[in-house]
Amino acid sequence: MRRKALTSGIDQPLLDGQRPVRSVLRLLATQPRRMTVALAAFAVKETPLWFLPVITGAVIDIVAGGGTVASVLLWFALAVALLAQNYPNHIVYTRNFMTVVRGTGAALRNALVERLQALSIGYYSRASSAVVQSKVVRDVENVELMLQQVTHPLLSATMVMIGAITMTAIKVPEFLPVYALAIPTALLIRRTMTRRSQARNEEFRREIEGFSSRVGEMASLIPVTRAHGLERTAASRVADGAEEVRRAALRLDLLNGRVASVSWVAMQLLGVCCLVLAAIVSLTGVIAVTPGEVVLLSTYFGLLTQGLTQVLNLVPVTARGVESVRSIAEVLAEPDLERNEGRRHVGEVRGRLRLERVSHRYPEASQDALHDVDLEVREGETVAFVGPSGSGKSTLLNLVLGFVRPTSGRVLLDGADMAELDLRTVRRSVSVVPQESVLFEGTVRENVAYGLDTAGEDGAATDARVRAALRDANALEFVDALPDGWDTVVGQQGARLSGGQRQRLAIARALVRDPRILFLDEATSALDPEAEATVRDALDRLMRDRTTLVVAHRLSTVRAADRIVVLEHGAVVEVGSHDDLLRRDGRYAALHAAQSGAA
After folding, report:
1. pLDDT, tens digit, for every residue of 36-63?
2. Where are the alpha helices (DSSP H) in 520-575?
3. Which residues are within 8 A (CB) of 442 and not within 5 positions of it... i.e. 6 or more apart?
4. CATH architecture of structural domain 2-332
């Protein structure tokens, strides 16, 4: 229920970047019972803070007026009772409030992850993975830290203020106007500093995100950097980012220091003024104030100014947390979604594809990446796309996968416009084998069975499917030879395997899903001839009786395709079999001759 509260309204998220404070209150209000219990326990546990000055003043007046020991002991017993209840109520408060805070953090992360899964591929072409990671990890942590560090002193100052005003109204009501000085002063300081603090925190957050992006790029480019002896260049580039972060952080620290100093001086000065005023009033007899009441008033004002100082000193933490709320809201409010909700579910895919006058132009591009493409792919047919770099091959695959939408025209699957289909249900019948196989830090079995719907299957049936897929992908022999068989951890990105082994696992992952449509994107271009032959044999087995779209630069890999589509400048210039296209002596024949000559 908690998770649903944050993620169900994904188009109208709870977090509003324009009203971050209100957004935080909405988050806390998603668990009203726990928050009510937490606030009640806090109010009770904080009773000693505002009632002990009453006891202190009463004891002083007993001593000054020559009272009895029994009277002192009575007040002492009350003080002990008030102090003793603090522990159990503090535990109740902590358990309930921190459950809300940690639950809010987990729900925010879940909401971010679900939103990230719903965003289009275009979003990820613009956003660095390091920046996305920073939002999910660092920004949510900042929100949790803000709630954890700000709430206690804010509530404490509120309780002290209520208690102080109440008891002063009972004891010395004439002194109430003095309290009116502290709160407006604190609010004025907060208003003055918050706007500048917000700007500094936004600047710092942007610098951190940029720096995270540079570090991510550096890590991904390590092999290139090392191969070309560019270590110093890479380190210098990251160092420049670190220097910008340092400058932004220092400017923020200096502003926070000014906030802390101004807050402390202002509140302490008010506290001293209150003490002097109470003493003068008592000595002059303008108002009948006992020595105990002088102590009570001074203590209350001291507690109030101390609480307000703590709250003001938390302006930096609050500003950082509020900026993180804005950062999270950027993702939750991002409109570039792959919209599937409410569209028709697809129960069965046969694999017939048709592109009707399809064009696509990327944002800010001056011309179409694909222009006016008409093409039909029959069920079970293998169609290869060839052409020079930039001819539109990958764009065409992305259109059929639904990663991008046609600027004009339609893509039909089994006669239905894909714009009207829930693509998540379509992709259950689709497998992709990319040029660079994507493996995660896990075992061979976990990588092959990734995302496998095993509902209704027992473990033995699943294992049988995985083993059959490994065998058909020509991977079983090397997997069985690994130290722990298919329980061997492959390392990040499959670092402990060769390129051919990684690609065969990618093929096994595709096989185990038993897809109706298969996409091969330069699946063998990065392999040596021996590894390519082994992978090619596995691919032939994978492609059998499936609709297959192949993108390839090396024409030797597409000879067996039913049809070859030649693309140039985003347009289809030739279509036919390998032999037919060679006989035409057109663009394909020229490409073939160029590659044969280079070989």
Report:
1. 999 999 989 988 887 888 888 888 888 8
2. 529-543
3. 489, 490
4. Up-down Bundle (1.20)
